[in-house]
Amino acid sequence: MTDLGALRESMVEHVRARGISDAVAEALRAVPRHLFLPETAPEDAYRDEAIVTKRDADGLPISSSSQPTIMALMLDQLGLEPGQRVLEIGAGTGYNAALLACLTGPGGEVVSVDIDPDVVGHARRRLDAAGFPGVRVVCADGAEGFPGRAPYDRVIATVGVWDLAPAWLEQLGPAGRLVVPLDLRGVQRSVAMERAGGHWVSRSVVPCGFMRMRGPFAGPEMTRVLDRGSDLTISLPEEREIGDVLAALDGPSSMLPTGTRADRAELLDGFGLWLAVREPRWCALYETCPGRLPSTPMDLPGFTVTVGIVDRGGLCVLEHGRSGDALAVHAYGSEGPGLAAGLAAHLHDWEAAGRPASEGLRVEAHPAGPGPVPPGAPVLDKRHTRLVLRWPGLFPR
């Protein structure tokens, strides 16, 4: 017979190694994750992994139970206190809403909003089964928030968002805090933000990866499965013409040594973000069945992962070098060598800047439109906000 308590405690201890607070650890102990994943074996439900719970007609994931570690980190970013009122954007399985209910105590209130009626129905039933009937689950467009219970002390999105919805900012109380997986040109960072005069400023930034928001507030990011045999998938910050990627990968190629060494964490967190906000032609490629992509220092368990630059005439990707641990750039297609030189230049610029990453990154969200920014600072213009990114020692005021 499966010892559910032991499985849950093992998961909690694994997550605690990331330095989460005692309050969040106790919430993880109190909420039975397996009840929110009834079609998943308990041994799998208590792994520190995201679990896909719904896919679209093309097979792409559209709903999941997020990885417990990133959920815990975001809950610590949120800084919940007993008695607070919380709005959650994206109901998922209902598991995160149950954690929110534990952290706000019997005097608090949790409202979870999701655009998908099936997701809402499942979340409602699972919350009831787990003993959380007080959580309000609403079927609506999360971009509109839920004004009926505003103002909120905290707002958290458990779905990737391209922009900050005006409704969320309006429905937050004066001392409120917002935590969202925010799109930074195709990569996501969980950003905790508070008001600072006429704009919003981050308190903390954590690497993350969430399924994108659906509906009218969805962003322009594009994810396309290129080869179902290897599950090769490309992600771009927006839809554009990229040519025949498969034909390029199957054609002649060359390698450009870079002389730079970096580990997986540095590349996934630091260089991936640096490239995304500086190179308009950047892309991410990944596959679950090895075959198309070269082995890379960014690979994750079960995934071959890399970043690069793609255009209509070719592409290039980061990979292991052939000598030692130095990185190389693999170029494909007629324009591949030129793209490879550009990718190597970005890598060297990132190294010269001190390998900036999420830690220390400051994200400012100003009202949309032109305004003064430090020379060279990345600026990302959205529908409702203009984001300005700063790293310590780079692009000061």
Automatic annotation (TrEMBL):
Under the heading InterPro entries, the entry gives: Methyltran_FxLD, PCMT, SAM-dependent_MTases_sf
Q: Please indicate if the UniProt record lists Nucleotidyltransferase as a keyword.
A: no
Keyword annotations of the record? Cytoplasm, Methyltransferase, S-adenosyl-L-methionine, Transferase
What's the EC number here?
Answer: 2.1.1.77
User: Main subcellular localization, coarse class?
Assistant: cytoplasm
Q: List, alphabetically, the Gene3D superfamilies matched.
A: Vaccinia Virus protein VP39
- Which Pfam families does this entry report, sorted A to Z? PCMT
Using the UniProt record, name the top-level EC class of this enzyme in a single word: transferase
Name the GO terms of the biological process aspect. methylation
Provide the protein's localization: Cytoplasm
A GO CC annotation recorded here is: cytoplasm
Report the superkingdom from the record: Bacteria
Q: Extract one GO molecular function annotation from the record.
A: protein-L-isoaspartate (D-aspartate) O-methyltransferase activity
Similarity-based family: Belongs to the methyltransferase superfamily. L-isoaspartyl/D-aspartyl protein methyltransferase family.
NCBIfam families recorded: methyltran_FxLD
Q: What is this protein called?
A: Protein-L-isoaspartate O-methyltransferase
